[in-house]
Amino acid sequence: MPKIILITGATDGIGLETAKMLSGLGHTVLLHGRSADKLADVEEMLRAQPGAGHVETYVADFSSMADVKALASDVVAAHPTVDILINNAGIYGTPNTRTADGLDTRFAVNTIAPYVLTRLLLPQMAKSGRVINLSSAAQAPVDLRALSGKMPLSDGAAYAQSKLALMMWSRVLAESLQGEGPAVIAINPGSLLATKMVMDAYGSARAGVDVGAQIVTQAALSDAFQNASGRYFDNDEGRFAAPHPDALHPTKAKQVVAAIEEVLARITPSSGRG
Ligand SMILES: NC(=O)c1ccc[n+]([C@@H]2O[C@H](COP(=O)([O-])OP(=O)(O)OC[C@H]3O[C@@H](n4cnc5c(N)ncnc54)[C@H](OP(=O)(O)O)[C@@H]3O)[C@@H](O)[C@H]2O)c1
Known about the structure:
Helix content is about 45%, strand content about 15%. The chain is built from nine helices and eight strands. An eight-stranded mixed β-sheet has the order 3-2-1-4-5-6-7-8, with helices on both faces. Helix 3 runs parallel beside helix 4. The radius of gyration is 17 Å and the shape is globular. The mean pLDDT is about 95.
């Protein structure tokens, strides 16, 4: 039975490769991207694949929470059920480190946008559904001032903190759902995979993008991940592993979620479609 799968950041890298795999298996793929032109190219590419499932496209810039909310409401209006949400869109380096809402762009795109999208789509998701969050092996203790946009950080520090923050809210959400909602699983798709992000940041890669797409596809579909809610799969090790210790610290994890909620209560959407 084809599943309905929303993939964020499906216009490049791991997201694009995963979209090709899932569409090629006949699933309905809802492609998200920030560029309408790139999305149109990907849609055409996917539709040309033999056995391709239904394809739809959604534009939203994740540095704007108004855009994220509009994306969620567009998806909800079109689909009473979403089986799988793959929170893949991410950013490492950017010339614009502050969003119009006054947030750190890396935290906005990598941590807060997927939090908002997930919360808004939860009512559409069955217990048998899955939320797959692309974290990273790069995880560093979260400075709550930086998460709130009140302290500037280097690209590397902001990226690693934003990826641990994503890991932390994944665990808190998984625990709060207690099997009454979709499984929430964080994964490191593999380090230094040959994508735009990695080539821009490091200039060289260690493995192909297919390594990441294969594990994301497995996390979305394979039975091995069905009972893995709250866990972290490290594809560098090829197994479920311990995340950064802060993610296992209940108080610290809840503080991160509270800080995200505070940010959301504070910002008035200042841009976007919503
Ligand atoms: N590659 C690795 O080795 C590696 C390792 C660990 C974790 N990851 C994680 O895997 C995920 C995918 O990374 P990747 O390496 O495939 O990167 P990528 O090739 O740069 O692709 C990133 C995707 O996110 C989208 N995106 C970026 N900023 C956005 C914004 N403001 N609003 C909406 N979409 C935005 C990009 O859109 P455009 O096409 O318009 O740029 C693109 O579709 C990320 O979460 C990353 O942190 C990657």
